[in-house]
Amino acid sequence: MDYLEVRARTVDLAVEAAMTELGIADREQLAVEVLQEPEKGFLGFGGQDAVVRVTQRKTRRRRNERRRNPRETRTETRARQEPARSGNNGENRQKSNTNSKGRDMNRQEKNDQPRIDDRPVMTIEDQARIAGEFLEGLVAAYGLEGSVSTSVTEDVIVADVSGEQTEALVGVRGSVRAAIHELTRTVMQRYAQDTARLRLDIAGYAERRRQALTIYAEQLIGQLMNEGGEIMLEPMSPADRKVIHDAAAAHAGVQSYSEGETPRRYVVLTRVEIDDDDDDDEDAVEETPYLSEEE
After folding, report:
1. Contacts for 150 with CB less than 8 Å, ≥ 6 apart
2. Residue 16 is part of which domain span?
3. Most buried among 82, 172, 201, 232, by the most CB within 10 A?
4. Is the pTM here over 0.85, yes or no?
Protein backbone atom coordinates (compact mmCIF):
# COMPACT_ATOMS: atom_id res chain seq x y z
CA MET A 1 0.00 0.00 0.00
CA ASP A 2 1.57 3.32 -1.08
CA TYR A 3 -0.56 5.44 1.26
CA LEU A 4 -3.55 5.26 3.60
CA GLU A 5 -6.34 7.84 3.95
CA VAL A 6 -8.08 8.03 7.32
CA ARG A 7 -11.06 10.14 8.49
CA ALA A 8 -11.61 11.07 12.15
CA ARG A 9 -12.86 13.91 14.34
CA THR A 10 -9.37 15.41 14.72
CA VAL A 11 -6.05 15.14 12.91
CA ASP A 12 -4.40 13.43 15.89
CA LEU A 13 -7.14 10.79 16.10
CA ALA A 14 -6.83 10.14 12.37
CA VAL A 15 -3.05 9.67 12.68
CA GLU A 16 -3.49 7.33 15.66
CA ALA A 17 -5.99 5.27 13.68
CA ALA A 18 -3.52 5.04 10.80
CA MET A 19 -0.74 3.90 13.15
CA THR A 20 -3.03 1.18 14.53
CA GLU A 21 -3.98 0.07 11.03
CA LEU A 22 -0.35 -0.13 9.91
CA GLY A 23 0.91 -1.62 13.19
CA ILE A 24 3.35 1.25 13.81
CA ALA A 25 4.12 2.53 17.31
CA ASP A 26 6.40 5.45 16.35
CA ARG A 27 4.72 8.40 14.65
CA GLU A 28 8.08 9.46 13.18
CA GLN A 29 7.84 6.48 10.83
CA LEU A 30 4.87 8.11 9.06
CA ALA A 31 4.69 11.02 6.63
CA VAL A 32 1.38 12.80 7.31
CA GLU A 33 -0.47 15.01 4.84
CA VAL A 34 -3.65 16.79 6.03
CA LEU A 35 -6.24 16.69 3.22
CA GLN A 36 -9.11 18.26 5.18
CA GLU A 37 -9.09 20.24 8.42
CA PRO A 38 -11.88 19.41 10.91
CA GLU A 39 -14.77 21.80 11.52
CA LYS A 40 -16.95 21.71 14.64
CA GLY A 41 -20.16 23.14 13.17
CA PHE A 42 -22.98 24.50 15.33
CA LEU A 43 -24.05 22.39 18.32
CA GLY A 44 -22.47 19.38 16.69
CA PHE A 45 -24.51 19.84 13.50
CA GLY A 46 -23.00 20.53 10.09
CA GLY A 47 -19.37 19.89 11.05
CA GLN A 48 -16.83 17.85 9.12
CA ASP A 49 -14.14 15.35 10.08
CA ALA A 50 -10.43 15.62 9.48
CA VAL A 51 -8.97 13.60 6.60
CA VAL A 52 -5.27 12.72 6.49
CA ARG A 53 -3.11 10.75 4.08
CA VAL A 54 -0.24 8.85 5.69
CA THR A 55 2.71 7.16 4.04
CA GLN A 56 5.14 4.87 5.81
CA ARG A 57 8.70 6.15 5.68
CA LYS A 58 11.43 3.82 4.44
CA THR A 59 13.87 2.72 7.14
CA ARG A 60 17.49 3.93 7.04
CA ARG A 61 18.76 0.36 7.13
CA ARG A 62 17.11 -0.47 3.83
CA ARG A 63 18.45 2.68 2.19
CA ASN A 64 22.00 1.91 3.34
CA GLU A 65 21.66 -1.66 2.17
CA ARG A 66 20.68 -0.49 -1.30
CA ARG A 67 23.66 1.86 -1.39
CA ARG A 68 26.01 -1.02 -0.59
CA ASN A 69 24.42 -3.22 -3.24
CA PRO A 70 23.37 -0.85 -6.03
CA ARG A 71 23.18 -3.66 -8.60
CA GLU A 72 21.15 -5.99 -6.46
CA THR A 73 17.63 -6.42 -7.73
CA ARG A 74 14.53 -6.73 -5.59
CA THR A 75 14.21 -10.37 -6.65
CA GLU A 76 17.71 -11.17 -5.36
CA THR A 77 17.01 -9.40 -2.05
CA ARG A 78 13.79 -11.33 -1.63
CA ALA A 79 15.54 -14.62 -2.48
CA ARG A 80 18.25 -13.97 0.12
CA GLN A 81 15.72 -13.20 2.83
CA GLU A 82 13.49 -16.22 2.15
CA PRO A 83 15.64 -18.82 4.02
CA ALA A 84 15.55 -16.69 7.16
CA ARG A 85 11.81 -16.86 7.30
CA SER A 86 10.12 -19.46 9.43
CA GLY A 87 8.86 -22.52 7.68
CA ASN A 88 5.50 -22.01 9.34
CA ASN A 89 4.81 -18.73 7.51
CA GLY A 90 2.73 -20.45 4.86
CA GLU A 91 0.65 -22.21 7.47
CA ASN A 92 0.22 -19.00 9.49
CA ARG A 93 -0.75 -17.10 6.36
CA GLN A 94 -3.37 -19.71 5.55
CA LYS A 95 -4.81 -19.49 9.07
CA SER A 96 -4.89 -15.69 8.83
CA ASN A 97 -6.75 -15.83 5.52
CA THR A 98 -9.24 -18.30 6.98
CA ASN A 99 -9.86 -16.07 10.00
CA SER A 100 -10.29 -13.03 7.75
CA LYS A 101 -12.87 -14.86 5.64
CA GLY A 102 -14.72 -15.89 8.79
CA ARG A 103 -14.84 -12.31 10.05
CA ASP A 104 -16.05 -11.07 6.66
CA MET A 105 -18.84 -13.67 6.63
CA ASN A 106 -19.93 -12.73 10.16
CA ARG A 107 -19.92 -9.05 9.24
CA GLN A 108 -21.97 -9.74 6.11
CA GLU A 109 -24.49 -11.78 8.12
CA LYS A 110 -24.89 -8.90 10.58
CA ASN A 111 -25.44 -6.44 7.74
CA ASP A 112 -28.05 -8.70 6.14
CA GLN A 113 -30.09 -8.95 9.33
CA PRO A 114 -32.98 -6.46 9.46
CA ARG A 115 -32.54 -3.70 12.00
CA ILE A 116 -35.14 -3.62 14.76
CA ASP A 117 -36.49 -0.16 15.57
CA ASP A 118 -36.87 -0.18 19.35
CA ARG A 119 -38.12 3.40 19.53
CA PRO A 120 -41.66 3.66 20.93
CA VAL A 121 -44.62 5.01 18.98
CA MET A 122 -45.49 8.25 20.77
CA THR A 123 -48.50 10.48 20.54
CA ILE A 124 -48.01 13.88 19.01
CA GLU A 125 -48.57 15.44 22.44
CA ASP A 126 -45.66 13.43 23.90
CA GLN A 127 -43.47 14.45 20.97
CA ALA A 128 -44.38 18.09 21.61
CA ARG A 129 -43.35 17.63 25.25
CA ILE A 130 -39.94 16.25 24.18
CA ALA A 131 -39.40 19.18 21.81
CA GLY A 132 -40.38 21.66 24.51
CA GLU A 133 -38.06 20.13 27.12
CA PHE A 134 -35.15 20.18 24.69
CA LEU A 135 -35.73 23.83 23.76
CA GLU A 136 -36.04 24.82 27.42
CA GLY A 137 -32.73 23.12 28.14
CA LEU A 138 -31.15 24.86 25.16
CA VAL A 139 -32.28 28.31 26.33
CA ALA A 140 -31.01 27.56 29.84
CA ALA A 141 -27.67 26.29 28.49
CA TYR A 142 -27.15 29.61 26.72
CA GLY A 143 -27.97 31.48 29.94
CA LEU A 144 -30.80 33.40 28.29
CA GLU A 145 -34.06 34.61 29.79
CA GLY A 146 -36.96 33.28 27.74
CA SER A 147 -39.93 30.97 27.72
CA VAL A 148 -40.90 28.02 25.54
CA SER A 149 -44.44 27.03 24.60
CA THR A 150 -45.63 24.15 22.42
CA SER A 151 -49.00 23.33 20.90
CA VAL A 152 -50.45 21.00 18.29
CA THR A 153 -52.24 22.40 15.24
CA GLU A 154 -53.49 20.09 12.48
CA ASP A 155 -50.96 17.33 13.26
CA VAL A 156 -48.11 19.89 13.34
CA ILE A 157 -46.11 20.68 16.48
CA VAL A 158 -45.83 24.46 16.86
CA ALA A 159 -42.99 25.53 19.16
CA ASP A 160 -42.45 29.15 20.14
CA VAL A 161 -39.38 30.51 21.96
CA SER A 162 -40.08 34.03 23.19
CA GLY A 163 -38.10 36.66 25.08
CA GLU A 164 -35.90 39.61 24.14
CA GLN A 165 -32.67 37.75 24.86
CA THR A 166 -33.67 34.87 22.62
CA GLU A 167 -32.83 37.01 19.58
CA ALA A 168 -29.36 35.49 19.97
CA LEU A 169 -30.84 32.18 18.82
CA VAL A 170 -32.03 33.60 15.49
CA GLY A 171 -28.73 34.33 13.72
CA VAL A 172 -28.09 36.03 10.40
CA ARG A 173 -31.17 35.55 8.21
CA GLY A 174 -32.39 32.88 10.62
CA SER A 175 -29.39 30.59 10.14
CA VAL A 176 -29.11 29.69 13.84
CA ARG A 177 -32.87 29.21 14.10
CA ALA A 178 -32.77 26.83 11.13
CA ALA A 179 -30.01 24.81 12.81
CA ILE A 180 -31.99 24.63 16.08
CA HIS A 181 -35.07 23.55 14.12
CA GLU A 182 -33.14 20.67 12.55
CA LEU A 183 -31.52 19.76 15.86
CA THR A 184 -34.90 19.65 17.62
CA ARG A 185 -36.29 17.34 14.93
CA THR A 186 -33.26 15.07 15.36
CA VAL A 187 -33.89 14.84 19.12
CA MET A 188 -37.54 13.93 18.49
CA GLN A 189 -36.50 11.23 16.02
CA ARG A 190 -34.16 9.68 18.60
CA TYR A 191 -37.04 9.08 21.01
CA ALA A 192 -40.01 8.25 18.80
CA GLN A 193 -41.01 6.61 15.55
CA ASP A 194 -42.98 8.48 12.88
CA THR A 195 -42.29 11.92 14.30
CA ALA A 196 -44.67 14.74 13.48
CA ARG A 197 -43.80 17.87 11.56
CA LEU A 198 -42.32 20.74 13.54
CA ARG A 199 -42.80 24.47 13.11
CA LEU A 200 -40.40 26.55 15.21
CA ASP A 201 -40.39 30.30 15.81
CA ILE A 202 -37.87 32.18 17.93
CA ALA A 203 -38.35 35.77 19.12
CA GLY A 204 -41.11 36.29 16.53
CA TYR A 205 -38.60 35.98 13.69
CA ALA A 206 -40.75 33.68 11.53
CA GLU A 207 -43.66 36.14 11.45
CA ARG A 208 -41.41 39.13 10.72
CA ARG A 209 -39.66 37.16 8.00
CA ARG A 210 -42.98 36.09 6.49
CA GLN A 211 -44.23 39.68 6.32
CA ALA A 212 -41.02 40.96 4.76
CA LEU A 213 -40.96 38.17 2.17
CA THR A 214 -44.62 38.78 1.30
CA ILE A 215 -43.89 42.46 0.57
CA TYR A 216 -40.83 41.44 -1.46
CA ALA A 217 -42.86 38.89 -3.44
CA GLU A 218 -45.61 41.43 -4.19
CA GLN A 219 -43.02 43.81 -5.63
CA LEU A 220 -41.60 41.10 -7.86
CA ILE A 221 -45.06 40.04 -9.00
CA GLY A 222 -45.89 43.64 -9.91
CA GLN A 223 -42.68 43.86 -11.95
CA LEU A 224 -43.50 40.55 -13.61
CA MET A 225 -47.01 41.64 -14.60
CA ASN A 226 -45.64 44.81 -16.19
CA GLU A 227 -42.63 43.34 -17.99
CA GLY A 228 -43.52 39.67 -18.43
CA GLY A 229 -40.97 36.87 -18.65
CA GLU A 230 -39.83 35.13 -15.47
CA ILE A 231 -37.85 35.95 -12.34
CA MET A 232 -35.49 33.55 -10.60
CA LEU A 233 -35.04 34.22 -6.88
CA GLU A 234 -32.02 33.42 -4.72
CA PRO A 235 -31.84 30.06 -2.89
CA MET A 236 -34.16 29.94 0.11
CA SER A 237 -35.20 27.63 2.90
CA PRO A 238 -38.40 25.56 2.48
CA ALA A 239 -40.28 27.93 4.82
CA ASP A 240 -39.26 31.03 2.83
CA ARG A 241 -40.10 29.35 -0.48
CA LYS A 242 -43.58 28.57 0.85
CA VAL A 243 -44.20 32.26 1.54
CA ILE A 244 -43.28 33.13 -2.06
CA HIS A 245 -45.52 30.35 -3.40
CA ASP A 246 -48.44 31.58 -1.27
CA ALA A 247 -48.02 35.13 -2.55
CA ALA A 248 -47.87 33.96 -6.18
CA ALA A 249 -50.94 31.74 -5.74
CA ALA A 250 -53.01 34.82 -4.81
CA HIS A 251 -52.43 36.38 -8.27
CA ALA A 252 -54.07 35.12 -11.44
CA GLY A 253 -51.59 35.05 -14.29
CA VAL A 254 -48.60 34.24 -12.09
CA GLN A 255 -47.14 30.81 -11.57
CA SER A 256 -44.34 29.72 -9.26
CA TYR A 257 -42.28 26.56 -8.99
CA SER A 258 -39.09 25.42 -7.28
CA GLU A 259 -35.91 24.20 -8.93
CA GLY A 260 -32.45 23.09 -7.82
CA GLU A 261 -31.21 20.79 -5.09
CA THR A 262 -31.25 21.48 -1.36
CA PRO A 263 -29.71 23.67 0.04
CA ARG A 264 -29.47 25.60 -3.27
CA ARG A 265 -33.16 25.20 -4.11
CA TYR A 266 -34.85 28.38 -5.35
CA VAL A 267 -38.21 29.73 -6.61
CA VAL A 268 -38.98 30.84 -10.14
CA LEU A 269 -41.86 33.27 -10.82
CA THR A 270 -43.28 33.32 -14.33
CA ARG A 271 -46.15 35.10 -16.04
CA VAL A 272 -48.78 32.98 -17.77
CA GLU A 273 -51.56 33.88 -20.15
CA ILE A 274 -55.11 34.03 -18.80
CA ASP A 275 -58.16 33.07 -20.85
CA ASP A 276 -60.76 35.80 -21.33
CA ASP A 277 -63.35 33.63 -19.59
CA ASP A 278 -61.25 33.63 -16.46
CA ASP A 279 -61.01 37.44 -16.29
CA ASP A 280 -64.60 37.69 -15.05
CA ASP A 281 -64.14 35.00 -12.44
CA GLU A 282 -62.99 36.50 -9.14
CA ASP A 283 -62.09 33.05 -7.84
CA ALA A 284 -59.81 32.19 -10.77
CA VAL A 285 -56.46 31.77 -9.03
CA GLU A 286 -53.62 29.76 -10.46
CA GLU A 287 -53.07 26.73 -8.23
CA THR A 288 -49.41 26.56 -7.33
CA PRO A 289 -47.92 23.49 -5.67
CA TYR A 290 -45.28 24.14 -3.07
CA LEU A 291 -43.14 22.26 -0.61
CA SER A 292 -43.75 22.36 3.11
CA GLU A 293 -41.26 23.62 5.68
CA GLU A 294 -40.44 20.07 6.71
CA GLU A 295 -39.27 19.09 3.19
Report:
1. 128, 129, 131, 132, 157, 158, 159, 160
2. 4-108
3. 201
4. no
